[in-house]
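Researcher: I've been going back and forth with a colleague about how Transposase might be arranged in three dimensions. Neither of us has a model we trust, so I'd like an independent prediction. The organism is Roseateles asaccharophilus, in case that matters for your notes. Sequence below.
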Amino acid sequence: MLAPDVVLCTDCSGSLGAAARHLGVEHHALNLSKGQRVQGAWHIQNANAYHARLKNCIRRFNGVASSYLASYLGWFRALDRSAQSPRQPAPFLALAIGA
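Model: Here is an independent structure prediction for Transposase. You can compare it with whatever you and your colleague have in mind.
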């Protein structure tokens, strides 16, 4: 699901462009085969780097059950966002109890 004000930045996949048109969201396609990775503010490598970090995190669990996917993604986001700052237990406990 995408919010109505989302901006979708992808490679030149025709299916993703068609999906963006169908959903009525802004779409910026970068042609990786021509070496185009940046176009103004649009930078496909950010999405690729995030995807690589997510795969690396999930790999340690040998896959996840789809019923727990939201929990795994929530913890991944919390860990990923805290990577730039020292990890303190209080923020993670607050996330765990929904505070």
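Researcher: What would you highlight for our discussion?
Model: I'd start with this: The mean pLDDT is 80. After that, consider the following. DSSP finds four helices and four strands in the chain.
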